[in-house]
Amino acid sequence: MDVRHQILTHATRLFAEQGYDGTSVQEIADAVGIRKPSLLYHFRSKDALRENVLAEMLAHWNAVLPGLLLKASTEERFDATMRALSEFFIEDPDRARLFLRETLDRPEQMQGMLARFVQPWVELLGGQLERAKRQGLVRPDVDPQAYAVEVITMAVAGTAVIDTLQTILPDDPARGNTRTRHARELIRVARSSLYTENEGDN
Question: Is there a contact between 155 and 186 (Cβ–Cβ < 8 Å)?
């Protein structure tokens, strides 16, 4: 793992745990095992580092998820699509925690990021699901764009607090660990609220 990637990884974790204001550049440098000037060689300021952390996370969505989500209008592809969305956060819950924290702490700045990285493919998905509605595959009362936003919200918020919720959603030998149970139920809820009964039986 190169130094730049290490900086972004540790910054994501610390910003998620302590918040942007509660984390110093020195703490991030110490976590990486480099000197502060070395960190500032890669990122000129703490604010630039934050922007790169968020941009890299959202750029992953831009590169991978649109192609997957556009296939979600048929249930055959839906579970794989939802697994990709949930696993992106579950494999590193700090992504979800940071996303949620930044949305609450800096809503205006996050609106700009979301408009740049997320809004275009939410609109694409909305168009795709509208066509699926006309074909009778998707429930007629579904608001496609709002549906996409709600699924993202469930994935982010649920994953951000999943470790805390282990007390009330414990590991279960028959059903899997907490994160597996969360992801499976997210997929089931998202699927059942989208498709018509006939499509759901396929």
Answer: yes
Tokens of 24: 């110093």
Residue 172 one-letter amino acid: D
Interval 16-65: pLDDT, tens: 999 999 999 999 999 999 999 999 999 999 999 999 999 888 877 666 66
Helix (H, G, I), strand (E, B) or coil at 174: coil
Domain 1-44, CATH 3.10.129.10 — does that match?
A: no
Written as six digits, the tokens of 193 are: 């609220």
Q: Is the pTM of this model over 0.85?
A: no
Kindly state the tokens that stand for 143: 């608001």
What homologous superfamily does CATH list for 51-200? Tetracycline Repressor, domain 2 (1.10.357.10)
User: Exposure of 174 by Cβ count < 10 A (0-12 exposed, 13-18 middle, 19+ buried)?
Assistant: exposed
Residues 6+ apart with CB under 8 A from 44: none
